[in-house]
Design brief:
Blueprint lengths: L1 H31 L2 H17 L6 H5 L5 E4 L7 E6 L3 H4 L2 E8 L6 H4 L14 E2 L6 E5 L3 E8 L7 E10 L8 H21 L25 E2 L14 H6 L4 E3 L9 E7 L5 E8 L1 H8 L10 E7 L7 E7 L15 H19 L2 E6 L3
Antiparallel strand pairs: 1-2, 2-3, 3-7, 4-5, 5-6, 6-7, 8-9, 9-10, 10-11, 11-13, 12-13, 12-14
Length: about 375
């Protein structure tokens, strides 16, 4: 009996040893072939940003099929996450997604672009299109902002920021990267709205997002040719010329974007006046920036809009050129500024069904 017991113990030992060896070999194979890393990275993406990260455009945004997610500081946000490539250190490619409610205070980082409105073209943004209430901006780095108004609560909107904090150096063209960033931001915003009970209307899948002009290829044209965001000023072409800005750069007309821009240019090709329209939570954030202590020449107007309880805000700025450390339009024309802003605001209001356009006096 002892002989049989001993043999049985040896067989059991060999079996256990064989199983352990097999498991070790399998584990080594999974690790060496990257299967485990892929599984781990996919789990990180699935749980990122409280499970709201949309993954459809990640590959294009970071120019890689191998991406992973990690935690980001979400103390000031509803959720936040960082997505990058394993080789980010060598080739770049990293983006940060941040979500907030409109009744949360915007961070200083989110408000920073509004303080640069008088600084040439640094405050510019272009609409995403395809029915999305969002825009893309570029000031050394790309950012997409989407603001989904909650139809079941007019006092609230879900805001998503997609920041491409490291451009993928091996990307040959900009458009796929920006389109991917746009998809990640818009689709994550819609996914988050559904998760958190915000009944919101999004748009169609983005297929084309490009740099805001004139970072792109658009050159200033004569104001009489305006058809997009500057179309309201065509009737003021003579006054604009007298004010030193006969030309313009505009953006596609879009009744969904929460920020609209129109720029008037000097004959030397320098932006002299910038016009801005802000809606919903973006208008609220703009108004939270203290303009009273600034020395910029500007004019303001407001309107009531049906999509949000927040007033729309319209602004015109006398623009400063950092390259020459001067104003391309030497003398600010308050009368032209008032006429241009009034025409711009009234046209914008009409496109959105807004009413009660009021020119604001500066205190």
């Amino acid at each position: 009996m002892k002989i049989f017991a001993s043999r049985r113990q040896r067989l059991v030992g060999w079996s256990v040893g064989g199983i352990l060896l097999t498991l070790y070999i399998v584990a080594q194979a999974l690790y060496s072939t990257g299967v485990y890393a892929s599984w781990r990275d996919q789990r990180s993406l699935d749980s990122a940003c409280d499970g709201t990260l949309a993954q459809g455009g990640l590959g294009d945004a970071l120019n890689s099929s191998h991406v992973r997610a990690g935690a980001a500081d979400d103390s000031e946000y509803l959720a936040a996450c960082l997505i990058n490539r394993p080789d980010t250190g060598r080739h770049g490619g990293a983006l940060q997604l941040m979500l907030r409610w409109s009744d949360q205070s915007a961070t200083s980082e989110a408000l920073a672009p509004f303080s640069r409105n008088a600084n040439g073209l640094q405050g510019q943004a272009a609409p995403l299109g395809n029915g999305w209430p969002g825009y893309v901006r570029y000031d050394g780095s790309a950012q997409v902002v989407v603001a989904l108004d909650c139809q079941n609560n007019k006092n609230r909107a879900l805001v998503a920021y997609g920041d491409l904090i490291q451009w993928p150096d091996d990307a040959k063209t900009t458009e796929p990267v920006l389109t991917g960033l746009g998809r990640v931001t818009t689709e994550s915003a819609q996914k988050a709205a559904a998760k958190y009970g915000c009944q919101a209307q999004g748009g169609r899948q983005l297929t084309h997002v490009s740099l805001p002009s004139p970072n792109g290829t658009t050159a200033p044209q004569q104001l009489a040719q305006a058809q997009g965001s500057c179309v309201a000023l065509r009737g003021l072409a003579g006054q604009a010329s007298d004010a030193g800005t006969p030309d313009f750069v505009e953006y596609p007309a879009d009744a969904h974007t929460p920020q609209v821009n129109c720029y008037l240019f000097t004959p030397a090709g320098k932006p002299g006046y910038g016009l801005y329209a802000y809606y919903g939570v973006v208008a609220k954030d703009f108004e939270s920036v203290n303009l009273a202590n600034r020395s910029d020449d500007y004019a303001l107007a407001t309107a009531r809009c049906p999509q949000s309880d927040e007033e729309a805000v319209f602004a015109l700025y006398h623009l400063y050129d950092r390259d020459t450390d001067s104003y391309p339009v030497r003398h600010y024309s308050a009368s032209f500024a008032k006429s241009a802003l009034k025409a711009f605001a009234e046209h914008e209001a009409k496109q959105r069904g807004c009413t009660n356009v009021r020119m604001m006096s500066r205190s």
